[in-house]
Write a sequence for this structure.
């Protein structure tokens, strides 16, 4: 093998190893990504499969109920356009309450109920997670610089 061919073979082998390493890193990175969706996004079918996702919006007034059989909590998250029921088993954050912006991380089950593994609540009166604020702005509920208001759900007919 000539010297030129040997260098070419080494270069191709090095590029193959780097390409394989890049694929492994990108695959691991994709598995750890958690995308944010609003209830409207989920209703339109934006999220699919059994991926862990984040759901953000406002906790609808009058929607929080304790589940006696599982010790969990059921509530509704809304972006004022669409509402989505959420079930969470665990201790809610101290600042969790109706009318507040939250981000829940979990999975959407086939029945359309979001099963949360984690619930994050805002930490003061003016803070709203940026993803939730963007989702509410897209829904036309909150103007730039305006604080979100409590949302009341209409009873289902």
């Amino acid at each position: 093998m000539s010297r030129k061919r040997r260098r070419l073979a080494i270069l191709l082998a090095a590029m193959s190893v780097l390409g394989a390493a890049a694929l492994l890193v990108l695959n691991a990175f994709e598995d750890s990504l958690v995308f944010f969706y609003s209830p409207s996004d989920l209703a339109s079918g934006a999220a699919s499969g059994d991926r862990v996702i984040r759901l953000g919006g406002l906790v609808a007034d009058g929607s929080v109920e304790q589940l006696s059989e599982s010790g969990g909590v059921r509530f509704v998250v809304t972006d004022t356009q669409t509402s989505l029921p959420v079930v969470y088993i665990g201790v809610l954050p101290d600042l969790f309450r109706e009318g507040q912006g939250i981000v829940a991380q979990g999975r959407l089950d086939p029945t359309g109920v979001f099963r949360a593994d984690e619930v994050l609540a805002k930490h003061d009166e003016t803070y709203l997670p940026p993803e939730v604020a963007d989702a509410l702005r897209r829904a036309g509920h909150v103007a730039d610089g305006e604080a979100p208001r409590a949302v009341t759900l209409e009873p289902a007919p």
User: Anything to note?
Assistant: Residues 99 and 149 are 7 Å apart (CA to CA). The radius of gyration is 22 Å. The helical segments are 3-32, 39-43, 130-138. Strands lie at 35-37, 53-59, 65-66, 73-78, 83-88, 101-108, 114-121.
